[in-house]
Amino acid sequence: MEKIIIDADPGIDDAAALAVAINHPELDVQLVTTVAGNVTVDKTTQNALKILDFFGKAGNIPVAAGATQPLIKPFEDAARIHGESGMRGYDFPTPKTAPIAKTAVTALYDTIMASPEPITLVPTGSYTNIGLLLAQYPAVKPKIKKIVAMGGTLGKGNMTSAAEFNVFTDPDAAKIMYQAGIPIVMIGLDVTLQALLTPETLATIKNLNRAGEMLHDIISSDGDQSTAGVAMHDVNTIFYLRHPEAVTTVPYWIDIQTTGPAIGETVADVRGAYHQGQTNALVGTAIDAAAFNQWFIAQVRGMK
């Protein structure tokens, strides 16, 4: 069983990723930390608690609230995509539990250092908490097995022509993360826009069980979809964790633009010349979309 920590900004696709992870028999979610991103951190924290409550996991998995804004750049949310609550489409009751008293960074540090084995970090929102952790507590680095991060793109962005949302939200934190010397897998738009959940998949999960109905309703409310389907960006990180063979990755050195019109761009040294052949990330470039859809249906079918 792989120990993971999810750092998220739920968000519809974060919620779906969290739902899959906490119900997966081969994943041990040690901690959930929240960050400002899709909506403000008070809302992302409540949304994480709502998902844990829905699946009866509240109290078993601690939730720690994190950064309220990026390190330097002004905060811009994505409520236009996810709704004002961040998780529109389903009427969740008020969470029965509250976040723990520790801040996200303190909880991350304590959980990672207390673990007898290295832990995998799965950031699916902006990387502010991760950047703060690595800057303030560099001793955690050897205790992090790898970082499987949703974000970035080798091509066109979804916030600007150059930048993907998570990296655009806090490019300075992204730069800290990519320069930390920790193994990173970049699951960006190059992969997630290939692995759309099809209308057929959504119709199937709606009739599977209570969890499928909830996920169908929030995913169908996502403001960024087409007739071909909807991109569940963050769920791709969990799919990669369990089925890396279904995702094509290429080693690159990734730099982050932190200023100017291309702020938030993930720049790959594709020729290997600028960094003399060194690499700092495995970058997802292709995915078996059919396998992703089949896997997602199977995950939902197994939820209680």
Automatic annotation (TrEMBL):
The gene is rihC. One of its GO terms (molecular function) is hydrolase activity, acting on glycosyl bonds. It comes from the Bacteria. It is an enzyme of class 3 (hydrolase). Residues 4-293 form the Inosine/uridine-preferring nucleoside hydrolase domain. Keywords: Glycosidase, Hydrolase. Its EC number is 3.2.2.-. This is Ribonucleoside hydrolase RihC. InterPro entries: Inosine/uridine_hydrolase_dom, IUNH, Ribo_hydro-like. The keyword Mitochondrion does not apply.
